[in-house]
Amino acid sequence: MRIASFNINGIKARLPRLLEWLEETRPAVACLQEIKTQDEGFPAAEFEKIGYHAVWHGQKGFNGVAILADGTTPQVVQQGLPGDPTDDHARYLEVDVFDTRIVNIYLPNGNPQPGPKFDYKLAWMERLRARMQEIMAEEVPAVVLGDYNVIPTDRDVWAPAAMADDALMQPESRDAYMRLLADGWIDAIATHQPGGGVWTFWDYQAGAWQRDHGFRIDHALLSPELADRLKACGVDKEYRGREKASDHAPVWIEIKPAD
């Protein structure tokens, strides 16, 4: 079973590329971030035409997450990250599908830092950790995947000095991410490719794609129950180079059937 994550950077603007990717790679589950549409504008019918059923949590103009499943409708467990009733950002969607708990996140960017946006990012990460601890306690096969907006180590960026002042790789951001791993969650890409050098994002500016000046901010963290079944993982890098592409490439994991 393939479970994938794709920050699509505007579902309406990228719909042809998204449908192309779905039909060519056919993940069982696809988690989308930055759909940038209100709920009523989500193009569910387009996915149904190719066999996918969707649930989504939208927001006008920015943010927004969705989960597509091949041939079945995911059952929503949690929409919106618990812990702050004043937070109305559409950044979190948790479902059960194919006997797996799947959590799709679009973690706050945090720039500029320091400042209120960075404070919000760190507070959001604390709330995320609390929810992930609850999921871990359920001892279910689970994966939390999406755009974390964190570059975990210097091995995950083309030039650490170029991003040194960015919220994505501040010590506080990295420490919050490492606390998730310390709780027992397994970073699939880092585990399978420990040498680093794997990018999931290339900016539209300064020829970043053409020069391969990228970094890794899209992650899949697996619970121990699911990590034992991890067969393979990777990045669909070629899709970043297509016409009118997102600035992210899809990340995926391949899971073996349960015994």
UniProtKB/TrEMBL annotation:
Q: What InterPro entries does this protein's entry cite?
A: AP_endonuc_1, Endo/exonu/phosph_ase_sf, Endo/exonuclease/phosphatase, ExoIII-like
Its cofactor is: Mg(2+); Mn(2+)
Q: Site described as Interaction with DNA substrate, positions? A: 248
At the top of the EC hierarchy, this enzyme's class is hydrolase
Which biological process annotations from GO are given for this protein? DNA repair
Q: Could you tell me what the cofactor note in this record states?
A: Probably binds two magnesium or manganese ions per subunit.
Q: Reply yes or no: does the keyword Magnesium apply.
A: yes
Q: Where is this site: Important for catalytic activity?
A: 218
A single GO molecular function, which one? double-stranded DNA 3'-5' DNA exonuclease activity
Q: Where is the active site?
A: 106, 147, 248
Tell me which EC number(s) this protein carries: 3.1.11.2
**Which CDD domains does the entry link to?**
ExoIII-like_AP-endo
State the UniProt keywords alphabetically: Hydrolase, Magnesium, Manganese, Metal-binding
Sites marked Transition state stabilizer: 149
Span of domain Endonuclease/exonuclease/phosphatase? 4-248
- Record-annotated residues binding Mg(2+)? 7, 34, 147, 149, 247-248
* The family this protein is said to belong to: Belongs to the DNA repair enzymes AP/ExoA family.
Name used for this protein in its record: Exodeoxyribonuclease III
Organism the protein comes from:
Novosphingobium ginsenosidimutans
Upper taxonomic lineage: Bacteria, Pseudomonadati, Pseudomonadota, Alphaproteobacteria, Sphingomonadales
